[in-house]
Amino acid sequence: AQSVTQPDIHITVSEGASLELRCNYSYGATPYLFWYVQSPGQGLQLLLKYFSGDTLVQGIKGFEAEFKRSQSSFNLRKPSVHWSDAAEYFCAVASSGGSYIPTFGRGTSLIVHP
Amino acid sequence: DTGVSQNPRHKITKRGQNVTFRCDPISEHNRLYWYRQTLGQGPEFLTYFQNEAQLEKSRLLSDRFSAERPKGSFSTLEIQRTEQGDSAMYLCATTGQGISEQYFGPGTRLTVT
User: Fold this and answer.
1) How many CB atoms lie within 10 A of CB A10?
2) Is A70:A78 a contact under the CB 8 Å cutoff?
3) Res B1: pLDDT
4) Core vs surface per residue A49-64: b (16+ CB within 10 A) or e
């Protein structure tokens, strides 16, 4: 069964600092990987996705993520955080065939200090 | 705007009452998914439709839960005899051009008192 671990429940950074949110997945074959962001009381917005090819993927809002098969990781990064980035971030893994039903991690809450 | 609307946005009900939520994609997307999200957790899959056919249901979807998608457009999720444990955010998602990526509505927050 597929699973996702986001080891950090909360991350606090200063505005303008760099950011890395960790995600480890468990899946037997090549997974489909996603990062979503959720603002309070809202649905999830897709930041970026990895299906195949280049292991460094670019997303919206200046985010990027790197797929490392050897480490079963798909960490999210941003070089300079803005106060508006404060939100909940979810990593998800889906099977690469069939139903594409994603399994989500429990999320990492990003707090941005001015 | 993801093109997915959900109504109502908030619902407070008493234990034992029935509730129904609605999900409306702007256009008729191929697949439609329902999730439940509790505080401090990621979304958990409940069920999904391809057009009007309900193809998969999670073991989380007890017999008190039923979902429909008539004509393959909007969908409804009904919970009968609500329990306090049903309090959660219920999210609907549809697929975009690629069926592997999903776009979420704003959710319906259910509070059972």
Assistant:
1) 9
2) no
3) 63
4) bbbeeeeebebeeebb
**Taking an 8 Å Cβ-Cβ cutoff, which residues of chain B contact chain A?**
2, 4, 6, 31, 33, 40-45, 48, 55-56, 91, 93, 95, 99-107, 109
Q: Which of A43, A94, A104 sits opposite B100 (nearest CB)?
A: A94
d(Cα B107, Cα B91) in Å, to the nearest integer?
4
CB pairs under 8 A between A and B: 59
pLDDT for B47 equals: 96
Widest pairwise Cα distance in chain B: 40
Is A90 an 8 Å CB contact of chain B?
A: yes
Looking at residue B73, its pLDDT comes to: 86
B6 vs A85: CA distance, rounded Å: 25
d(CA B71, CA B60): 25
Strands A10-14, A108-113: pairing is: parallel
| A contacts of B44 (beta carbons < 8 Å) | 104
Q: Do A46 and B55 touch (CB under 8 A)?
A: no
Segment B5-52, tens digit of pLDDT: 999 999 999 999 999 999 998 776 678 999 999 998 999 999 999 888
Task: Tell the burial category of B20 from Cβ atoms under 10 Å away from its Cβ (0-12, 13-18, 19+).
Answer: middle
Compute the half-sphere exposure of residue B108: CA atoms within 13 Å on the CB side of its CA.
26
Residues of A in contact with B45 (CB under 8 A): 101-103
Smallest Cβ–Cβ distance between A43 and the set B42, B45, B105 belongs to B105
